[in-house]
User: Fold this.
Amino acid sequence: MIAFVVIQFFPVDYNQSEIVPQTDFMLVNKVPATVEQSLRVSCYDCHSNNTNYPWYSKIQPSAWYLEHHIKEGKAELNFNEWDDLSDRRKTSKLRSIISQIEDGEMPLDSYTLIHWNAKLDTVAKTQIIEYLQRLKDNL
Assistant:
């Protein structure tokens, strides 16, 4: 019990920014509203510079767990830095996103377990994949 209390005094670096950079995926691409909503709800918490934190993010060790996943997610893909990527890198990222959505790898099961609204249904998956495929083909 003492260890649990002590670790509460070790804060994390929260991933929150009030600024949406001009390089953001949504700003540089004409994203349909339904796709944009799905990406924001299912992807942006871990793959952008602004996470909407749940109540349990204030409690250790879950805060460390979240921080680790967010840093990992942003290292793999940060939608806020989309336009900083080369076309070749964008194509690679789009191919990877499509594949992971098709295979059910993203969003993570551990995320959708608590954030049930982030789970992508068949319609949302199809809309996102078709949009990303068109985007990839036009690069």
Observations:
- The two ends are 55 Å apart (CA to CA).
- The longest helix spans residues 87-102.
